[in-house]
Amino acid sequence: MTSPVLPTDIFRLIIGYLSPFEVQNARLVCKEFYELSKLRSVWNALIHKHALHHNIPIPGLPPPLALRAHHAGPAGDISRALDALSALELEKRLLRALRLRQNWTSAMPVVKRRFNLDAIVQDHRIVSVHLLPNGKLVSHSVSQHFPRTAYLRCWDIDEASPAGGPKCVAVRELRRSRGTVVDKTSSEVRIAVTRDAQVNILSFDPSETSDPEKAFVTEVVDGEAHYIHFFTGTTLITGDAHDRIFFWDTRRPEEKAQLQNHHLEDRSLLIRDVVVTEAYILLLRTNTLELYPNPSSNMLADGKPTVIHPAHVHQWPWRIDIGLLSLRRQPKSRSNSADGIYIVMRYGSYFPWSINLLHHYELRANPIYSKGMPVSNTNVPFDFPPVLQDTIASPVRLHAISDLAIGPYGTAVWTDSHTEDYFDRADQGQRLAGKFFPFSRSQLDDDDEEDEGEGIELSDQVATAAATSVYAYHEGDNWVSVAVDETEGRIALGRDDGSITVLEYV
C-alpha cells in the first residue's frame, strides 16, 4: 500500500517548521518528498525566513545583483535579485550563508582557505587594503624611504586557483600622490587619486588580460583637490590647501558646495570617515561628528560655491585615534523602519599609553524625522547624542599599530595586542579579533514589547564587553591594515613588508 501524496501547499506549510538542513534530510524519506524539496518556492520561502529575516547576507550572488542587494535600497531589492536564481542556486546560497554565519560568529572561527599575496617590491608598506563586493581586492602600498613611491594593485579573489592563489590583474605606480580613496559600492574597480592637486579616476579594464600594468585606465577630472575624503559613483568630498572641505560631482566639477563648521577652531582636524545619502552627509572628525544636508540640488549661489553649515554637531569627549561609520543594513522583517548608524572607535590619550578600549556607539533614527523635508537643525534624521552600547576590551601596546574595519551587517574586526592568552606573554604578537553587534532593542518593530535600551555610561578605563570572536593571532607585529567582507566571509590583513594575507571562513 502506497502512502498518499501530500498536497504541495500542505507540504510547504510543514517545511516552514524545518531548518534548511532538515529539509535536506527529509528528501531522503521518499521520492515524493525528494521532488517536493526541489521546488523553487520551497527554497525561496526558506531563504527569506532563515536568512533575510535575520539579516544574514547571501554569498555568491553575481556582482551587479550583490551590489544592488547589499548596498542600495530596501530589502525588497534582495527579493528581486533572488528571482533570477534557480531552486538549486537558492539552496546552495542559503546553506553557504548559514554555514558562514555559524562559523563567522563562533568564538574561534575556522579558516577554510588562506592566501598570501607577495609584495610588489621590497621596502614597501601596506597603507590600506580593500575587499570589494565584486570579488576584487585593492591594496595601496608606499615605500618606507625616500624617494617615496606608491603602488596600487588589484587582485581577483573570486578566481583564485587552489594552487596559485589570486591573480594580480592590475597594477599602477603612483608618483606625487597625496592619497587614494576606493569606491567600495561599485560593481567595478574605481579609485580616486590626487596628484599635483588634480583628481584622477582609475578604472579597471577587464579586457586587458595580457599586461596588468595597462589594466588601469585613467580619467582626468577637471577640478582642484589636494585631499580626497570620500568617493562613490560620481560624488567626491575633497579638501583644498586651506583645509576647506568641498562636496561635488565629477560630471559638474565647476559646481561645488563647501561644508563649513564655524565653531571648528582647527579646520585641519582629520576626517576619519564619511557617510553620504541622498538626504544628508555625516562627517566623523577627530573631535566631532557633523551632520550636513546633502546640497546636490543647490551647489552654487551667485556663481560661487554654496556654503553649507551643519544641522547638528556632536563633540566627542576625547580625540579619536581611529573611527568608522556604517549605515546599518536593515533586516527584511524591519525594512519599513529608518536606517541607523553604528560607530566604532578607539579614543586617543595624552598619557604615554593608549586607552585600551574600543567604543561602540549607535546613532538611532529620529522617529519624527520627515523624509519629505530637507535636513535642518529642526529636522534631523537621527537622535543625538549617539548612544554608547559597548566598551570593548582591546589592549594596544605603546607604539603598536592597531586597525579597524566594520561592515553593514554588524561585524567589526580589529587588530590589537591581546596575546597573553595565546603565547603566555604580552610583550609581542597581535590578535585579529571581532564582535558581532546584533540589532539593539531600540531597533525592534514598534509592536515589540521590549523597552528601548538606554546605553551605558562612558568610561575610558572600564570594559563592559569583550571580543566575541578571535579570527587569528600570530607572534609578529607586522599587521598594519585590515579589511572585511561579511558577505563572502573574508578578512584581508596588510603587512608592513608589503605582503597581504587573505583569510576565508566559508
Automatic annotation (TrEMBL):
| Coiled-coil region list | none
- State the Pfam families in the record: F-box (PF00646)
Q: What species is given as this protein's source? A: Agrocybe pediades
Family matches, as InterPro entries:
F-box-like_dom_sf, F-box_dom, WD40_repeat_dom_sf
Q: Which Gene3D superfamilies match?
A: 1.20.1280.50
Q: What is this protein called?
A: F-box domain-containing protein
Give start and end of each F-box domain: 1-46
